[in-house]
Design goal:
This protein is mostly helical. Helix content is 53%, strand content 9%. Strand 1 and strand 2 form a beta hairpin.
Amino acid sequence: MKHSRRQIEFESMAVPHSWFLVANELHDQARGLFEKKGRSLLLLKVDDSVSKSTDLANRSAFLLGGFALENAIKAFLVYENPSWIRDGRLSNELKSHSLTELDTRINLP
């Protein structure tokens, strides 16, 4: 079966190395945000005598870190299952964002 130009481009961009590069970039961004911890606080007034603060770097850094881990797992899954990026589409096996669900799809000896 002949692949279209779009399918060939998709498959070349969805190789494990591409997933790893995105994971690395997201990890670097998460680290950069986490290094700014304590510089940006959100103060919430609970009542007249109590206020609560939350560090804005925490949530963003952990979200980016989790997304980096997701992409690293997907790099490994695509390495193990190259058919999951065929025909210009991602397999449903890769469409989850659940780290524990993705982890169960890894076939380690």
